[in-house]
DNA sequence: CATCTGTTATATATAGTATATAACAGATGC
DNA sequence: GCATCTGTTATATACTATATATAACAGATG
């Protein structure tokens, strides 16, 4: 069922990779509002990692408002809680860091705009393909 | 001379904070092409951290192409080596992560465009203020 | 009641971070 | 030449973060 792939040679922590991929899964509508993530034990088995590592990722996602954990059902996707201004403020810091890097590397405002459009279109592209009934990757 | 400020309570590593702040310093033209960073020992004293921590930050900046280290002068700002396509590719991964977060939190393409413009203008704003001869923060 | 769920506790091994002390080679200025 | 600066390297230590392994508990399900 799952599209998670862990790079064990990455310098990014496994629980962070899990978080990021799940967030990208939501952004590309691979998983949607109301969907339930696998149980911590199930996903751990599936991916070949420890239960606690999955649990840490889920806890982080809960803390950041991407899922709500129900004892009965498990981790349910539920991202919408916050208002836009709050969301912008959260995004702003990371975005500032990246834009500083981009600028130092010679990218202009227009280059960034193009890149952002590109990525957003890729998100939508996946949505479209999914709607057409193609198999999930 | 320096605009570096370390948050010792942050969960971000000190050497990472150093890197980020120096990169942002370049983006806002607080420091420019050809300028020389303080020696590892000097900056370490100034900020109140260990020499090796500064050295690690400088090594990272060197590795990522932001400075060139000259045994005589020290760490010289020199960011321009790579072509745009290469730069875009480097930025793309981080940007994808942030945009996924932004989308999950309900931000639209337009919201992002506004945010990007905002941040870029803040960069330019600092440039303008600096040109006018205001004191450095 | 067996079996699933999240959650918590404890222990352990490994890696990353930050510090301290020390030394070396190259460059600079007196 | 010599003291003094530079980056660089080596070693050791303390602390924290990460990931794993076992184990147990309470609530919910069929």
Tell me briefly what this model is.
The structure is a homodimer of 137-residue chains. The first copy, chain A, is mostly helical and 137 residues long.
Name the CATH class of the largest domain in chain A.
Mainly Alpha
What does the average pLDDT of chain A come to?
Answer: 88
Number of domains of chain A: 2
So what's the oligomer here? homodimer
Largest pleated sheet of chain A? 2 strands, antiparallel
Helical proportion of chain A, percent range: 55-70%
Read across the widest sheet of chain A, the strand sequence of neighbours is 1-2
> What is the level-2 CATH architecture name of the largest domain in chain A?
Orthogonal Bundle
- Backbone structural class of chain A: mainly alpha
Q: Which percent band covers the strand fraction of chain A?
A: 5-15%
- In N-to-C order, the SSE pattern of chain A is HHHEEHH
The CATH superfamily title of the largest domain in chain A: Winged helix-like DNA-binding domain superfamily/Winged helix DNA-binding domain
Low-confidence stretches of chain A: none
Mass-distribution shape of chain A: globular
Largest interface: A-B, 40 and 40 residues
Q: N- to C-terminal separation of chain A?
A: 9 Å
Would you kindly provide a written description of the structure presented here, covering whatever features stand out?
The structure is a homodimer of 137-residue chains. Chain A is mainly α and 137 residues long. Chain A has two domains: 14-77, Arc Repressor Mutant, subunit A (Orthogonal Bundle), CATH 1.10.10; 84-131, no CATH class. Chain A has five helices and two strands, in the order αααββαα. Chain A has helices at residues 14-27, 40-47, 51-63, 84-104, 109-131; strands at residues 67-70, 74-77. In chain A, a hairpin with a 3-residue loop joins strand 1 (67-70) and strand 2 (74-77). Chain A is globular. Chain A binds chain B through residues 20, 23-24, 26-28, 66, 79-80, 82, 84, 87-88, 90-92, 94-107, 109, 111-113, 115-117, 119-120, 123, and chain B through 20, 23-24, 26-28, 66, 79-80, 82, 84, 87-88, 90-92, 94-107, 109, 111-113, 115-117, 119-120, 123. The structure holds a DNA duplex (30 and 30 nucleotides).
